[in-house]
């Protein structure tokens, strides 16, 4: 059926999950200017740009700039959940009635979830009604989750532009940071690095490694480059986000396996993965080792995401390492991203007890099993030189007050 026909016949009062990333059903959303029910979502900043709260009250486990007005107005309920807990919430307490998502064209009595295999399988298992918005341009990936047509309540004809997320070329400082982070990876390790410019820079710095595997929630264009370089042999992911070339590649790449959050972020699976190296970006790190990866100047810019899942999984992995990577300064070198202490009200995305390795363009610091004084001194050494004296003085004041 057409998106307009589906929207016109949609029963009011439902709790409807709207898929994110490349699974966002834009054709249906455009045909649904308002809805007398509740929407639920896990949108990704820079990718899912529609303000869903303009359609209906929204419950979201991630934050985007487009949702901030709705958050301020009370139209958005933000749930600060790990990705693994977001999956558990959707499958249970969220009480989702229906899930709407983009899928590839039907083949052999089933449809592929194409670019986003993260949350829909869990909702399918929990019994939610499923609505596939068919887009023939989406890749029917060789190794991923397929849903039988008999399980779908409706198929909607809904081609729409697939979001692109090309990574920016790294500057000199980012390239140095990437080399430092790559130095913590050994041949044969399993690497999680996510998406974005920092992740792409780190992954590109691994091209001379061998026998690597990639396991994570999302991949970008850097992963196929590692496959082509012979550095990576196998990839497990939930989502692909990047260029059109990436989407063309996953349509025929048998070494990339798409799996749901229940597998990509599962604590037991991660802990049982030997030599798992989780490399994640951050906004700032304080001298206690606490990491903020979701707020800038009091503004919620993203969410908890999978960072804690992967940090804790990597720390429990035999031979694993959890790496927090960030440039030492921002805003043209005027703001330090190594700070004395996170400001009141700033969320702690990674606790000091979970802190492991921290990398900036100025070096590498191991915080695992380090006492407070040692970790503070090591982190001060990672700061941009113009901020080190002030950080040392601030730490001395903090230490005296303890």
Write the layout of secondary structure elements.
Layout: H1 3-8, E1 15-18, H2 26-30, E2 38-41, E3 58-60, H3 68-73, E4 76-78, H4 83-91, E5 98-103, E6 110-112, H5 120-125, E7 129-134, E8 146-148, E9 152-157, H6 172-182, E10 190-192, H7 197-204, E11 212-215, E12 218-219, H8 222-229, E13 232-237, E14 239-240, H9 244-250, E15 256-258, H10 261-264, H11 267-271, E16 276-281, E17 284-286, E18 291-292, E19 295-296, E20 299-300, H12 307-316, E21 321-325, E22 329-330, E23 335-336, E24 338-339, E25 357-360, E26 363-366, H13 372-382, H14 385-401
Parallel strand pairs: 1-2, 1-5, 2-3, 3-4, 5-7, 7-9, 10-11, 10-16, 11-13, 12-14, 13-15, 16-21, 17-24, 21-25
Antiparallel strand pairs: 6-8, 17-18, 19-20, 22-23, 25-26
Helix pairs in contact: 6-7, 7-8, 13-14
CATH architecture of the largest domain: 3-Layer(aba) Sandwich
Separate helix tally: 14
Proportion of beta-strand residues = 15-25%
- DSSP strand count: 26
Helix share bin:
25-40%
Task: Supply the number of structural domains.
Answer: 2
């Amino acid at each position: 059926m057409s998106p307009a026909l589906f929207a016109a016949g949609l029963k009011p009062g439902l709790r409807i999950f709207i898929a994110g990333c490349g699974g966002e059903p834009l054709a249906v959303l455009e045909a649904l200017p308002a809805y007398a029910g509740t929407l639920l979502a896990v949108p990704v900043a820079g990718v899912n740009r529609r303000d869903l709260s303009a359609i209906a009250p929204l419950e979201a486990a991630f934050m985007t700039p487009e949702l901030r007005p709705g958050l301020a107005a009370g139209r958005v309920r933000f749930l600060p959940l790990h990705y693994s807990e977001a999956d558990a919430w959707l499958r249970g307490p969220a009480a989702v009635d229906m899930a709407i998502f983009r899928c590839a064209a039907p083949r052999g009595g089933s449809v592929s979830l194409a670019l986003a295999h993260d949350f829909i399988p869990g909702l399918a298992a929990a019994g939610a009604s499923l609505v596939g918005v068919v887009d023939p341009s989406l890749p029917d990936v060789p190794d991923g989750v397929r849903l039988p047509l008999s399980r779908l309540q409706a198929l909607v004809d809904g081609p729409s532009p697939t979001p692109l997320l090309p990574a920016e070329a790294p500057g000199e400082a980012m390239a140095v940071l990437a080399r430092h982070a790559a130095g913590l990876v050994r041949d044969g390790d399993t690497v999680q690095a996510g998406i974005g410019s920092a992740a792409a820079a780190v992954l590109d710095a691994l091209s001379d490694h061998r026998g690597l595997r990639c396991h994570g929630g999302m991949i970008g264009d850097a992963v196929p480059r590692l496959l082509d370089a012979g550095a990576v042999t196998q990839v497990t992911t939930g989502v692909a986000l990047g260029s059109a070339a990436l989407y063309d590649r996953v349509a025929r790449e048998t070494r990339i396996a798409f799996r749901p959050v229940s597998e990509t972020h599962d604590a037991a699976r991660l802990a049982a993965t030997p030599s798992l190296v989780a490399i994640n970006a951050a906004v700032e790190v304080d001298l206690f080792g606490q990491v903020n990866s979701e707020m800038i100047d009091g503004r919620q810019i993203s969410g908890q995401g999978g960072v804690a899942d992967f940090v804790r999984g990597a720390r429990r992995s035999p031979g694993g390492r959890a790496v927090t990577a960030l440039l030492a300064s921002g805003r043209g070198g005027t703001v330090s991203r190594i700070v004395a202490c996170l400001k009141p009200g700033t969320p702690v995305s990674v606790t000091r007890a979970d802190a492991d390795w921290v990398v900036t363009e100025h070096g590498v610091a191991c915080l695992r099993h380090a006492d407070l004084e040692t970790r503070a001194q090591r982190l001060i050494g990672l700061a941009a030189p113009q901020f080190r004296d002030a950080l040392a003085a601030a730490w001395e004041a903090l230490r005296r007050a303890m």
